[in-house]
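Worked example

This section walks through a single chain of length 91. The input is the sequence exactly as stored; nothing has been trimmed or padded.
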Amino acid sequence: RSRAGVVVESEMQRLNRRLPDLGEPASAEVRQAMARVVDKLLHTPTVRAKELQDMDGPGDYAKMLHELFDLDPRETVTVATPPLSGPGESP
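Given that input, the structure is written out below as tokens.
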């Protein structure tokens, strides 16, 4: 998710350079729309990864995420044990 956030921010900077007259309200709306798209695209893989982690254990979870998302091994350390989230909370 953090990598996706970096991509969204990079694309927003690109959009603002290409459309300097876009204005802050429109720019904020586009940023929010892109964030919703990212959340929707990552929701199912995130849920599925957590389900698979429950079956395979923490070590395999980190390895799976590393392989699936081509993550830097230092980043997978933070997901070796997935965060607990309550109902309605984003992972």
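What to look for: Residues 85-91 have pLDDT under 50 and may be disordered.
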